[in-house]
Amino acid sequence: MKADSIYRDYHTYLRIERGLSPNSVAGYEQDLEKLKTYFADKGIDPVKASLDDLQAFVYDSFGAGANVRSQSRVISGIHSFYRFLIYHNWIEADPSELLELPKKQLHLPEVLTIEEIDAIVAQIDLSLPEGHRNRAIIEMLYGSGLRVSELTDLKLSNIYLDEGYMLVLGKGSKQRLVPISPTAKEWFVYWLQDRSRLAISPAATDIAFLNRRGGQLTRAMIFTIVKRLTAAAGIKKTVSPHTLRHSFATHLLQNGADLRIIQQLLGHEDLTTTEIYTHIDIQDLRKAVLQYHPANRKE
């Protein structure tokens, strides 16, 4: 089979068989393009590459001072491509099998306290046309743990206020049911009244959150809203919409929620992704011991 045909089939494999989002498919294909370009200069067919060839590609591409996150992403892309070749019987052995991912340092995400979230909410001017909308946005990000893309793509037809649930489209186009908190429901109803007075563009008639012109809100605008409210509240932490999602999960765990329930609410495919919140909780426990245990208090 010709190489071009293999790459076309790989695109179909990522999009259809693995069900990845367009952004994820583009990322994998960009990584494969780097590999193809490197091997073209060396006169190597990527389909016939050896482990040594792949290790040389990683070393030459990143060197000793590699960015761990970037290196991990590219190596994951390499693994994906060669698993695809094995799956379709185009190669007998996977040369990337022993190609190891670099060890990532544990990065604990920033988390807001309940008082800080209250301070952010207090900065919303409800007299403005977008006031109720912004309050509903904050309540859904923190009260339901939505990703930014899940919020911007949220459809009215997938929100069931009477039942207290919404159908969310997550990563890899996977759907999940997420509860709507009573507070979020209350402010969303207020926003629906304001929304009904907008001149809504035909493409956004089923989109839940709109801008002033009646079009779909962008991710960048959500970031701007959160940043402005955080600055007005005088909070010095690095805060983004994702911080509210982290805070949602952390506060659930601190109050006794089961980790697997949090996994389902966040839409994590792997429980190990959710386990980072146990590390955050442990940090809080350590702080409490250092602050309150008499053995740690200075005279």
Task: Give a brief description.
By secondary structure, the chain is mostly helical. 56% of the residues lie in helices and 4% in strands. It starts with a helix and ends in a 7-residue tail after the last helix.
Task: Indicate the proportion of strand residues.
Answer: under 5%
Number of E-type strands:
3
Outline type: elongated
How would you spell out the order of helices and strands? HHHHHHHEEEHHHHHH
Structural key phrases:
single chain; 299 residues; mainly alpha; 3-stranded antiparallel sheet; 4% strand; elongated
Structure description:
It is a single chain. This protein has 299 residues and is mainly α. Helices cover 56% and strands 4% of the residues. It contains 13 helices and 3 strands; from the N terminus they run H-H-H-H-H-H-H-E-E-E-H-H-H-H-H-H. The longest helix has 21 residues.
What layout of secondary structure does this protein have?
Layout: H1 3-17, H2 22-42, H3 51-62, H4 68-87, H5 114-122, H6 131-144, H7 148-152, E1 159-160, E2 165-169, E3 175-179, H8 182-195, H9 219-232, H10 241-254, H11 259-266, H12 271-274, H13 276-292
Antiparallel strand pairs: 1-2, 2-3
